[in-house]
Structures are given as C-alpha cells and as structure tokens.
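TICKET: design request
STATUS: open
ATTACHED STRUCTURE:
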C-alpha cells in the first residue's frame, strides 16, 4: 500500500534498493534472510539496527524455520524507507552509535555496535570505517561528520557507511558487511 501511493519511479527505486540489500545479505544465495541478516539489512537501509522486539515480530526466535523472502522484505521495509527522512535517520543512527551520549562516536563505540550487528566482520573493518569517517583524525566522529557520511551515498539514498570493503578483506566479509560498508 505504501508503494502504490508513491510514483512508479519512486516505488521502483525503493524496491530496487531493498532488492539490492536482500542480495547483499542473503549469504549463500538461499533465497531468504535469517534473523541476523535481517538486522544487517535494516541497519544498511534505515541507518539503525532493528530492535529485538521488532525482529521477533518479523522472524520469531522460537520458530527455527521462520525466514524472510524478498517479497516479505519489501512489504516490511518499504513503509520504513518511505517514512524516514534523512535527518531523522541520521539522528537515530548517531544516537545508536553514541551510546555514552558524549556527542561523538569513538572507535570503541563503532566496534561495539559492529560486534553486535555484524559479528563476522574482521576487527580491522571497524578501524578502516572509522578512519574514513574521522576526517580530522581526532579519534571522534561528530554528528555533522556522521550525517555527511550518511547522506554521501551516490543516488541520494542514505548509506550506513562511507565506502565498500577493500578487496583485501575478501568477498565473504563483503557479503556479511553488505550495505554496511
């Protein structure tokens, strides 16, 4: 219903973006997402992790066979993508990373979040991401820098991270990171 209210070009763009994220995070091209993969897709598309309560609503932890296929993901994510503006997404994501409420994100903050939402990423990935965003090298990412990084993605949609993984980290980690990087 959210997609039908949009122009067909906008709806197509949303579906393409969701489909792209699905393909990035569908480890092994199984045709569905696991709970872990859904959390990573949500972070990639919206900019903050899906809460465990929301996750249990979509893919119940108690149901070992519960999966989310592409049409279900589109149905779940399209309203979320349409309802959030870039500034709000940046604020929420920044608050999620700035757990100590200090007004900046540190490397430790980033490492903590990545260990929860993308535990398969190698440790050096957090350092690489942080070094790309911490442009002045002071060990802190301000909200201004964080927001600039979030909206810097080509095509105008928000990005959760500034750049893709370098080839040296390998395809497997790129698949786990998907749109995170």
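STATUS: resolved
RESOLUTION: sequence designed for all positions
ATTACHED SEQUENCE:
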């Amino acid at each position: 219903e959210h997609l039908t209210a949009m122009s067909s070009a906008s709806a197509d763009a949303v579906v393409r973006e969701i489909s792209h994220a699905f393909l990035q995070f569908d480890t092994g091209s199984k045709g569905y997402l696991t709970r872990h993969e859904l959390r990573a897709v949500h972070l990639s598309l919206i900019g903050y992790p899906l809460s465990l309560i929301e996750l249990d609503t979509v893919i119940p932890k108690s149901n070992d066979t519960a999966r989310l296929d592409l049409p279900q993901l589109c149905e779940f994510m399209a309203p979320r993508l349409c309802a959030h503006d870039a500034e709000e997404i940046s604020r929420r994501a920044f608050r999620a990373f700035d757990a100590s409420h200090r007004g900046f994100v540190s490397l430790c903050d980033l490492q903590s979040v990545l260990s929860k939402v993308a535990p398969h990423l190698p440790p050096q990935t957090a350092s690489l991401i942080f070094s790309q965003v911490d442009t002045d090298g002071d060990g802190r990412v301000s909200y201004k820098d964080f927001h600039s990084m979030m909206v810097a993605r080509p095509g105008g949609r928000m990005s959760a991270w500034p750049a893709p993984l370098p080839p040296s980290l390998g395809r497997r980690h790129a698949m786990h990171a998907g749109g995170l990087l």
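CLOSING REMARK: The chain has two domains: 8-83, 86-180. Residues 39 and 127 are 22 Å apart (CA to CA).
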